[in-house]
Design goal:
Rossmann fold, five-stranded antiparallel β-sheet, single chain, five-stranded parallel β-sheet, 6 domains, alpha/beta, Beta-Lactamase
Length: 654
Amino acid sequence: MGKITCLIPYEEISHVIESTFAEINDGNWELEIVLAAGVQCIAERHFVTDVILARGATAAALKQMPISAPVIDFSVSGYDTMRAIQSCQKQFGKKRIGVVGSHDMVYGAKSIEELMDVQVEVVEVKDETDAEPNIKKLMSRGIDTIIGGVMSTLIARRLGLNAVFIETGREAVYQALIEAKRVVQVRRKEQERSEQFRAILNYSSVGIIAINAFGVISLVNTDAEKLLGIRNSAIGCDIDRALPELGLKAVLSSGERDSQEVKTVNGLQLAINKVPIIVDEKTVGAVATFQPTSTIQELERKIRRKLHCHGLVAKSTFGDVVGDSPVLKHAIATAREFSKVFSNVLISGETGTGKELFAQSIHNASSRAKGPFVAINCAALPESLLESELFGYTDGAFTGATRGGKMGLFELAHHGTILLDEISEMSPTLQGRLLRVLQEREIMRLGDDRVVPIDVRIIAATNRVLDKMIEKGTFRDDLYYRLDTLRLALAPLRERQEDIMPLVRHFLGACCLRSGKPPLDISRSAEALLISYSWPGNVRELRNVLERLVVLSKSEVISDFDVSAVLPKSTEISSRPSTEALAGKSILRGSNVAQSGDFNREVLLGVLERTDFHYGRAAAMLGISRTTLWRKLKQHDLPALNGTIETIETIETI
């Protein structure tokens, strides 16, 4: 564990030290005993040890020297002083005795007077130079008997006085050795912590500067030196003089942290975090950590490139699915249940219905959320390239293969999820290989002769009817039944018209924010046109239309004219409009009037109000002709625009 060096003033004490050391040594300690009487004996000596034991003036002198090892005193105990006084009385029969020595040696000696029926005069000496004058002072007071250390007794005898040396007893040796071991152990732990702390500071990727309660720099790490062009010599300087731009003293006065502040210091733009050091509810210092904003930006770019180069991140959750229709809520509830298990999922739906959105949401709601999410469009790559992307290849597997080979998407998705979008477009050959992956949960790279086990959840998506493809022989039925463990069918937008306006508001807000435009409103007649359109491209088409409206809008309200301008010229009106959504859910709930065409007065009024009494659009929303609308209005004694009914009546007469 360590080495203990004992400096002794007389040889007789060595056997006491050796025997006491043997009692407490556990085999991990080394003992060195050096005979050194007086300070001059140790002045030129170089000590290679973990701790030094000495007594009296020798110990005091050692503590003033530039040595790395700690110094422990052989403390003179009360027992040692009493034994020395008793020896004086026996040898010289004196009742008046002078005690001369260092502070630790003479401390408490005066209190022995009452115990031993003796008068004690105490004189403290700091070094050899003041020992003789102090002893002469005792002589002038009539004291001719001295007890003390080696130096004091030698001087006393030279001056013709009686002298008794205070020997160090076993009790003091034992306590000193125990203390020496404790100091070494504590010092070792402190050194380990210090080295650990230093390594953390110097190998940290950020600059660190700390100040004490007075605003004086107490710590500067290597990165701070490099970034700010300062040196360790800055330690001890006032922070406001060295680096006023940091504003670190403000944290001392406020006692509150200041995070993510961007400042220019010495011409370098830094992201700075400042925190107070609080002990017992008092601010005793502050620490600033900082790094260049360019470093943060570059790190972010690297992370993004690494994670997104293969699409390894699922960005969407069920919270990103917009809509209030029962059919959509049912799909979300079903998908949430699917996320709780690891079975294969087949998502079907027309293009633009959000198949990948649901696939990502299932992944993020599952226990695999921390794993990779890999998506590939099976229709986007030719068969040969798709095979190498899915399964990977070895070095030299084919002409143009990357040196060292390449990991396939199935391997990249290990412990995660892979989405095979447009699975219907996969060739029969690849369908056979995929079937084996589903069965064995292992893959073989192109050009390799070994299999690689994988743990991947497979989600397949298609916008085609696989049953019909199986009948035509273009899709394997065995693969279909493997994929179709859990099925999720997403309804087209025309079948869930209640979701159109929530989606419109969502996309309008997002597009306005992205393009830097103020929020836009939309008129009722424009809403009616959007709701009545059949949306063959589903949500994707709706999003594109809303983006065009935002870009082309000239006013704060989108009108029906704006909508008509961006919708395809052959605008298709939904064959089964949601009259309930248009005229108010409370009017038609529980009835079949929309399907039967038996529109009551409230329904007709509701539709007219929504279209600002535009009869052409009102008729289109209700799925009837303008002539039929006129008849219904006349039947319920509702007003028409000037000339409209008369014109229709004239046309019918002709």
